[in-house]
Amino acid sequence: QVQLVESGGGLVQAGGSLRLSCAASGRIVSINSMGWYRQAPGKQRELVATITSGGSTNYADSVKGRFTISRDNAKNTVYLQMASLKPEDTAVYYCNADLVHYSGSGYLVTAAYWGQGTQVTVSS
């Protein structure tokens, strides 16, 4: 009923930039917070950045000053602009959205959803 579709990952050299996008679709009523998380091989998934419906942002210390999260509420889309990329940024990046939507039966549901993930590889 709700889908989060990510795009924009790829291979980039250290120091380069990438922009990730994540679009939410379905019978969505409202989206509270949206965010990006990442998981490197052999490591736990970690928070990268989040943004509320009002535009308040939160970043992991490791990406502050290099990554910028933004959202387009009209398009139910969140973005992650990544600059000055480092090899240690290599990971699968996942989009997350905490939202309210209609179920198939017409009930309002509040739940968090994840995208399928997009690979970001930074070469040294």
Q: Would you kindly provide a written description of the structure presented here, covering whatever features stand out?
A:
The chain is mainly beta. It is 0% helix and 62% strand. The chain is built from no helices and 11 strands. The protein has strands at residues 2-7, 10-13, 18-26, 28-39, 46-51, 57-59, 67-72, 77-82, 91-102, 108-114, 118-123. Strand 4 (28-39) and strand 5 form a beta hairpin.
Number of strands: 11
Our Rg estimate from Cα atoms comes to 15 Å
* Helix/strand class: mainly beta
Overall helicity: under 10%
Low-confidence stretches: none
Count of separate DSSP helical elements: 0
Strand content: over 45%
Order of helices and strands: EEEEEEEEEEE
**Shape field:** elongated
Largest sheet: 7 strands, mixed
C-alpha termini separation? 40 Å
Entry keywords:
elongated, 0% helix, 124 residues, seven-stranded mixed beta sheet, four-stranded antiparallel beta sheet, single chain, mainly beta
Topology (elements, then pairings):
Elements lengths: L1 E6 L2 E4 L4 E9 L1 E12 L6 E6 L5 E3 L7 E6 L4 E6 L8 E12 L5 E7 L3 E6 L1
Parallel strand pairs: 2-11
Antiparallel strand pairs: 1-3, 3-8, 4-5, 4-9, 5-6, 7-8, 9-10, 9-11
